[in-house]
Amino acid sequence: MAHNIADLFEHAVDVAPANPALKVGDRVVDYAELEADANRLAHYLQSQGVGVGDHVAIYAKNSVEHVVAVLAVAKIRAVSINVNYRYVEGELNYLFDNADVVAVVHERTYAPLVAACWPRHDKLTTAVVVPDALEPDDRSDVSSYGGVLWEDALAGQSDARDFGERSPDDIHIIYTGGTTGFPKGVMWRHEDFWRVLGGGIDFYTGALLEEFDQSRQATDPRMVTFPLSPLMHGGAQAGLLMHLFAGHLTVLEPKFDPVRTWEIIEREKVQLIFMTGDAMARPLIEAYEAHGGYDCQNLIAISSSAAIFSKPVKERWMAAFPNSIFTDSVGATETGFTGMGMQDKDNISTDGPVIGLGPGSVVIDEDNRILDPETHVGSIGRLARGGSVPVGYYKDPAKSAATFLVIDGARYSVPGDFARIEEGGRVTLLGRGSNCVNTGGEKVYPEEVEMAIKGHPAVYDTLVVGVPDEKYGQAVAAVVELREGETLELDDLRTFLRSHLSGYKLPRSLTVVDRIPRNATGKAQYPAAKELALAGFAGTAATVDSTSV
Questions:
Q1: Closest of 331, 355, 352 to residue 341, by C-alpha
Q2: CATH architecture assignment, domain 436-544
Q3: pTM of the full predicted structure?
Q4: What is the DSSP string of 45-67?
């Protein structure tokens, strides 16, 4: 046996085959059924020549078939490649090429894009076509590239588990969201992925779990969990796998809808939800308040990651669910889990998520020295993680060398997130260094300013970027989406922010937009926000004189 994603899932199947594993809409699939379909798809892929180390793209919204595909690929020691289903043709071509994809499992509604890309990729020879989760009657043509429908691919295939021994060194790739450039494939050993993202380490104590520890829980009282983000996002995929390893029931939805989410939480007695900061938390709490409150007393744990969960939104959630546990989880595709913070309604940070450092997590200075959290309170450095870290970026040795550093003989992942050391071994996450605004030699971390701006009653969402400035090099620029019917002037915003931020951190331009650019998982799209800010800066030039900061 190995610390391998497929093995860990199979352990849960063996312990509790009749446990419900997934629920999507009215469809419920137990562990034995999920296993059988994964084995059938795995055998089909093998029959098409897909083997150990080959890359299989999964291009679908949340569905049972999506989960089957992830498991099937792992079973034959191939490598699944997560695909953003919002990609346009150029982006899809980039991913198919960069990831050296040999097969794709895709929803039928994406057939026109697959057909357009297919001739450009000689390695791509197999396509399995899944019914669309939102448009099951879609009949898009798949014949031009030899696409095989899901039911035809699985028909007649063995459901036996006869795939041979696997290795903890098998590779699992997660492509980044591409918030600051082209997405990059982060290569994880299966064991390392399990350790930091699949529950293989106790997140609180740092104790290493044994191979069968999670599957033994499958006969215990089980949780009903609901990851709200798309499975194409590494965090949602990791949460799903962690709970599959333990025999829990995971509820999935192909599209985020706030009202439907509450209806599901109420009906299914969901106990744990994962969401992506304010992008999901704000519309959810507004739908909850507008309804007058759903019966969601089973909801005991509310976890946010990957984006800001701001103070004003948190306060509304905590008022609605005073007995629930709220956590901010911090990590990255390149690090996995780096820390978690329990949220106290009386001490919510306005700067950024405040977390306790997780196992192997440290803060390093600009000279790559590890800072002692007891003697460097108030110091700012880069958040890093040692121990179980990725192998590197796929086909990018230069970027790998810049991100995965050897410090004092140990290997660390340092993706560029900055943090400030606080009392008690905790840190405040300030944001990605690549987005840092350098204004007159002072560093301004966008997420800190965004948190403060979100406290303004007229603001619905915001991103902060740097724009060129003749005197200071860069100026802080705010791109803001307002609440319906609201207006906001730059001077009013700056006046509001003066009690929260130092003068040099105040925005010197304000661009109001219809919608803040975010990807499907809610992650900020800073390049797009910068284009909007520059357009506003050059157009209306809603700026203030630099001497007034």
A1: 355
A2: 2-Layer Sandwich (3.30)
A3: 0.85
A4: HHHTT--TT-EEEEE--SSHHHH
